[in-house]
Amino acid sequence: MSEKLSDEEVKILESIRSGRNFMTDFVDGLGLPPLRAAELTEKLEQAGYIVRNGYTGSKYYMFHLTEKGLGVLPKLTPEEEELAKDGLTKEDLLVLNAIKKLQEEKKPIVAETVSKASGVSTTRLVTVVNYLIRIGCLSEHGMIRRHVKITAKGEELLNKHKAKITSSEKT
Fold it and tell me: Counting Cβ atoms within 10 Å, is residue 34 exposed (0-12), middle (13-18) or buried (19+)?
């Protein structure tokens, strides 16, 4: 593999850096067909940019960056670095903030209202919400219809990064 990476390969590396390190994150979050995601991760692994978390069970579909992989990505801003330490992006914060406000206003927390309040497309929202549930910032319940609510961890991270939400809303 040449040192020049495709846009798709870079997007996979960025996804892993942001904590979205499951094969399903590449398929759902990046819109890659499953076979294409598998081909790309295999190439990235063989070239030394990523490593699987294991070779059995679900660990086979989880990845982390190597120094080489990290080295080819654009540098994060100080704000992005601080968020990354908590496994978050600005987009995650906007969604958490929207859900918190909707909860406080006792409005329905459905894709359309969260999308409108956060500025995140409904298609992208599914991936963000799934990730926030996985890291414990949101909880879910309901069998037929999914209901989410912010957790204590989500509240804590929102409070910690409140200034970043305000600066994102201004831009």
Answer: exposed
pLDDT tens profile 106-142: 988 888 999 999 999 988 898 899 999 999 999 998 8
Tokens representing 30? 């990046």
Closest CA to 126 of 136, 112, 141: 112
Tell me which DSSP letter residue 63 carries: E
Q: Are 100 and 94 in contact (CB under 8 A)?
A: no
Domain 7-72: give its CATH architecture. Orthogonal Bundle (1.10)
**pTM of the entire structure?**
0.84
78-166 CATH, one of 2.60.120.760, 3.30.160.390, 3.40.1280.10, 1.10.10.10: 1.10.10.10
CB-count exposure of residue 9 (10 Å: 0-12, 13-18, 19+): buried
Judged by DSSP in three states, 66 sits in coil
